[in-house]
Amino acid sequence: MSKISTLNAEHYHWGDACDGWHLLKQDNLSIIHEKMPPQSAEVRHYHVFSHQFFFLLNGELVIEKDGEETTIHPHQGIAIPAGIPHQVRNESQMPAEFLVTSQPPAHGDRVVVKKVKSISHVTL
């Protein structure tokens, strides 16, 4: 049995200055550890198939889920069903670290969306 940590897991960069580590990378399940620096955000998006669960280890995150914002603190989490637009932001002055569990894995299953207040703001 081998231990997995951010010291030996597959590392990747995302966004402008965020880090991620694949703690578990299987065909039907993904668990990643991510770190967001202060004043950073991911792009608003949804997943067609993947259901996700975000669990905060340290710091503070604002998670916008289908237009509703929730602030989570260490040892709190939030589920995001497939098809629901969401965005994770670190609006604090400290780094935030969290786990993201995705079933099935979210890689390649991301659709970027823009937040609009009403259909009248959409142009074709």
Automatic annotation (TrEMBL):
Say if the entry is tagged with keyword Metal-binding: yes
What InterPro entries has UniProt attached to this entry?
Answer: Cupin_2 (IPR013096), GPI/OXD (IPR051610), RmlC-like_jellyroll (IPR014710), RmlC_Cupin_sf (IPR011051)
Q: Name one Pfam family in it.
A: Cupin_2
Segments forming domain Cupin type-2: 34-100
Gene3D superfamilies attached to this UniProt entry: Jelly Rolls
Q: Which UniProt keywords apply?
A: Metal-binding
Name by which UniProt lists this protein: Cupin domain-containing protein
Q: Which organism is it from?
A: Fictibacillus barbaricus
